[in-house]
Design a protein that fits this description.
CATH superfamily of the largest domain: L,D-transpeptidase catalytic domain-like
Oligomer: single chain
Strand content: 35-45%
Order of helices and strands: HEEEEEEEEEEEEEEEEEEEEEEEEEHEE
Mean pLDDT: 91
Helix content: under 10%
Strand order of the largest sheet: 14-13-12-9-15
Length: about 350
């Protein structure tokens, strides 16, 4: 590959004149791993391509929740204009919009002294199944995905000696259990306020650019790609718009975690426990929040919210006014909320 520039290489590969990913299996020991070395497939079926090019041959399929090592990422021509990024896996290339970068970080320390108000955890493995009881054979209630956030109210040990955290679902009231080793306790300092002494703060959501920006005293201090409200074709209803509400808003409430459910009984039904770091700016529920169910930022695709990476959602949650105390699962804002302009 060193004798070809990348543009020529991709052109030849896409034309089928070279087969860089054919022949013997890739020896991953020769490939440097990215800092986030795993990817979780987020769609029911995702194609593997021979090269990071939409015109190259599709050579295989991946199913939802399959975990694959990521060895390289590259920006070329995407399957869609908003996202040029591809991930290299062992057998070829996959389009990054359909693969959530994840880690598998099993925890060694279990919190046994649970405060009365509980404590927050974040799923630290690609996914884990919550159970009705602290027992791996108990009925599964939900699959909890990497970076989702949950409030722990107790810790219990099963017959095999494994520790489980108890979660009380904030929407349904359901009590279920998750393996403690699969979640990372979030310390209070990770949710402490950012720039607390700055009074002049503003958030802007640019619908055309699909970006959300933060300003202090008129100077941009942070920006992130986002996915705002889109249009869905719903069986029996046709095309329905879920556009993010434009205009001038203010923060009205905050939640470190929210079980979001909507469109029950319809083809666009969603049921998402542990949506992380929700900063609401309308009473009807539009919010900036993390999205673990896709990696498709840069285009409209939400039900009206502003989807961002979980790390970006945490930043806006910490930075915006007012501050949400660690021990509070819900903060209602009567006045002083950071203004948000959507246009």
């Amino acid at each position: 590959m060193s004798s070809l520039n990348r543009r020529t290489f991709l052109k030849l590969a896409g034309a089928g004149l070279i087969a860089p990913w054919g022949g013997p299996p890739v020896d991953e020991r020769d490939l440097p791993l990215l800092p986030e070395t795993l990817g979780r497939v987020t769609e029911s079926r995702v194609s593997i391509y021979a090269a990071p090019d939409p015109e190259s041959a599709a050579i295989g399929k991946l199913r939802r929740d399959l975990i694959v090592p990521i060895f390289e990422e590259i920006d070329t021509v995407g399957l869609a204009k908003h996202n040029p990024r591809w991930f290299r896996i062992r057998t070829g290339w996959v389009y990054s919009s359909y693969v959530q970068p994840v880690r598998d970080e099993r925890q060694r320390v279990v919190v046994h002294d649970v405060p009365d108000e509980g404590f927050w955890v974040q799923t630290s493995v690609p996914f884990t199944d919550a159970r009705r009881e602290p027992d791996p054979e108990s009925r599964r209630t939900y699959r909890l995905y990497y970076s989702s956030v949950h409030l722990i109210t107790a810790v219990e040990q099963d017959r095999q000696g494994e520790w489980w955290y108890r979660i009380k679902d904030d929407l349904t009231g359901l009590v279920h259990y998750v393996r403690a080793v699969h979640t990372r306790p979030i310390p209070p300092e990770e949710m402490s306020p950012l720039s607390p002494d700055v009074e002049d703060k503003l958030i802007e959501v640019d619908l055309k650019a699909q970006r959300v920006m933060a300003y202090e005293d008129g100077v941009e201090v942070y920006a992130a790609r986002c996915a705002t409200g889109g249009q869905f074709t719903i069986e029996g209803l046709g095309a329905v718009s879920f556009a993010t509400p434009t205009g001038k808003h203010r923060i009205v409430r905050k939640r470190p975690s929210r079980h979001m459910m909507g469109s029950v009984g319809r083809s666009d039904f969603y049921d998402l426990p542990g949506v992380p770091f929700c900063t609401y700016f309308t009473e009807y529920g539009a919010a900036i929040h993390g999205a673990y169910w896709h990696n498709d930022f840069g285009r409209t695709r939400s039900h009206g919210c502003v989807n961002v990476l979980t790390s970006d959602a945490l930043w806006f949650y910490r930075w915006s006014n007012p501050h949400a105390p660690y021990e509070e699962p819900l903060v209602l804002v009567k006045e002083g909320g950071t203004p948000i302009v959507v246009s």
